[in-house]
Amino acid sequence: MIAFNEPVYIEKGIGYIAEAILKNKRLNGDGPFTAQCTEWMEKKCGEGVKILLTTSCTHALEMAALLAEIKPGDEVIMPSYTFVSTGDAFALRGAKIRFVDIRKDTMNIDETLIENAITDKTKAIVPVHYAGVGCEMDTILDIAKRNHLFVIEDAAQGMMASYKGRYLGTIGDFGTYSFHETKNYTMGEGGAILINNEKYVHRGEIIREKGTNRAQYFRGEVDKYSWVDMGSSYLPSEMNAAYLLPQLEQAEAINHRRLELWNLYDQELKELEEMDKIELPCIPKECQHNGHMFYVKTRDLKERTKLIQYLEQNDVNAVFHYVPLHSSKAGKKYGTFVGEDKYTTSESERLVRLPMFYALKDEEVKYTAQMVKNFYSRE
Ligand SMILES: *Cc1c(COP(=O)(O)O)cnc(C)c1O
After folding, report:
1. The pLDDT value given to residue 353
2. How many angstroms separate the alpha carbon of residue 340 from the centre of ligand 1?
3. S-S: 369 plus which of 135, 268, 314, 336, CB 3.0-4.6 Å?
4. What is the pLDDT of residue 378?
């Protein structure tokens, strides 16, 4: 069976974990491995971006909601085609979610529909960079600026990908990454918040450290630390950071390999697209993606179910993705869909994700693509 996903494994990770345990004898958060991961990412992202490692992308989104001071009654705009965490972080603060439709080509929020969803209660726009393909950020930033809104990028899938040469997650006020085992770089469970406005760095450190100024204390800026604000515990353990570090050290090679696999799928399946049997992902010219996901779109839900079954029978684990949030129990409670659901439901029902992970082999991509072709040649 070709698995849908396998977590990235770099042998050095084991040595680093052993080092955290046996040499550093330090397992709690913000030790040397966390510092090295953070340093690497900050160097990569460039000037003016402060990064804090977190226990998950969900928690990074929660931190962003706290930093943006989202309160009960506020409204937040996001696509309905996203993971539950994008909604959760704001529902937890008592906000109402305004879901808007997606673009058919990228499955990202349709930037032309955002303005219509803004009211005098709107506080933030949360673009989700689906499959590591950037949203139309220039338009989104412009809308946010004119309406005094925060932009919080859910870049869970977007590390190493960029929009007009700027890394995803570094463009809005805040950005979030995920290091869950299904993502391109992983620490099992983990994530990071990118704070792109210096003004919020101090409070970000406090919120992450249970509402204390412990980070300042460790830098010797204050002589004791105490409870100064609300917060929670968003620090990952050093063992998790140790697992992540060697992947960051090899981030370019990992990214390169994923793109190779992605391009191979694209090449192998092009003919089916030309025959109008399936649709393949679209990468706008402003975007450099990171090979996070390879999907195909079938004609409809019925055909997708059959394709997934056919692949399963032929030892390939292919999976569908999000059930739109506005159709879920909690989505109905905490949000409303604004405007027409032209693409969210219909396009989400057509999408199938094919196996995609760092250790995947060329032969496995070719075999999977062949099985998709076989499925369509039976008709
Ligand atoms: C994976 C993912 C998340 C959640 O990430 P965790 O690190 O598991 O909390 C949030 N949003 C999107 C778009 C994701 O893909």
Report:
1. 98
2. 26
3. 268
4. 83
- Going by pLDDT thresholds of 50, 70 and 90, the confidence category of residue 379 is low
Spatial strand order of the sheet with 162-163 comes to: 166-167, 162-163, 287-288
How is residue 217 written in tokens? 């204390």
Shortest-distance Cα residue to atom 8 of ligand 1: 180
Which protein residue's CA is at the shortest distance from atom 6 of ligand 1? Answer: 57
Opening angle at CA 17, ends 181 and 233, nearest 5: 65
Mean pLDDT of the region 138-153 = 98
- CB-based contacts of 45, cutoff 8 Å, min separation 6: 51, 167, 169, 170, 194
Report CA(89)–ligand 1 centroid distance (Å): 11
% of the chain exceeding 70 in pLDDT: 100
With a Cβ cut-off of 6 Å, ligand 1 is lined by 56-58, 82-83, 85-86, 128, 154, 156-157, 178, 180, 191
Q: Which atom of ligand 1 is nearest to the CA of 82?
A: 13
- Rounded distance from Cα 315 to ligand 1 centre (Å): 27
Q: Mean pLDDT across the stretch 304-325?
A: 97
Predicted confidence band at 73 (pLDDT cuts at 50, 70, 90)? very high
- CA-proximal residue: ligand 1, atom 5 (nearest): 57
Residue range 333-355: average pLDDT? 98
- Look at strands 191-195 and 50-54 and give their pairing: antiparallel
